[in-house]
Here is the input.
Amino acid sequence: MRRLAEIEDLSGLVRTALGPGCRAVAVDRLRGGSKKGVYRVRVDGAPVSSVIVYRWAEVENFWPAERGNDTADPFAPASGLAPFLAARRALDGLGVRVPRIFLADDSRRLHPADVAVVEDVSGDTLEALFTSDPARAAAALGDLAAATDRMHRHRLPRYGRVDLPARGGTASGVSCERLVLDRALRDLDEASARDSRIAAVCGRLRDRLHDLATLVTPRAEHGLVHGELGPDHVLVDAAGRAVLIDIEGLMHFDIEWEHVFLRLRFGEHYPALSRPGLDPRRLDLYALALHLSLVAGPLRLLDGDFPDRDAMRRIAEHNLTEALALLP
Here is the structure.
């Protein structure tokens, strides 16, 4: 039985962040977190009425343990204070709005896990605003488009997560497209073992991945990408600005990888984010690879005790259908 954080676990931490007069009065764990706990803490006696606490405790991680993770692989699980802070510095340096930090600590003296106390952005998610306030959502979507443009124009000759240099690491030697292909083949094997519909066409999907990869030509520069930039990972603040969250996986990579995710998650709103000059061959390979990842990943998560199980099943089912539709 997992013991998630309660008010007595976080009150001292929040008091340290906001001052001795601060008193925590309520704590809610927000839905959706699978690698870290995300808690809204309501307070009295502070300049703000609430804060968000990120808690990277092992008990908050619902993913089954994986063997042999290469920390130089940009797709390796990104979790902890160090990747969060590295990503935040990179985005802040580009003028991309991220939540303000009141406290960040990995000493284990304040709490027995990596933790950060950050701004509780007052607005809603962009995903919710598409329905509740389309005009406000459209303005925030424009701000998000400007932010992603700045990120994608920030090019480097290497790829990899932004926290990698600080850890003394270097990215794997293969190309982005080879990395995506190898990962997609592993996801295909894993999905085939869990779903008979994928298993029935496994050979055709494998051939399709290889065929698409042979069409991709080498590239020398890589932009800065969020990696999972859906409208649920964008908050909208009181000034109408787009605020990026769940940023630990920020990396330099092919921007087409970002765009296939944006296209999938933003749907009818994607044209505001689309840009000319994207490589159509990379888009084709990365789209199929992404769908396979979003079948294998949710099914793997369901091996454990992740609570929002219906949502994971819907994600897996939708992406299974999309992957099969990409077969010639």
Notes: The longest strand covers residues 37-44. The chain has ten helices and ten strands. Strands lie at 23-29, 37-44, 50-56, 101-105, 114-119, 160-161, 223-225, 234-236, 242-244, 251-253.
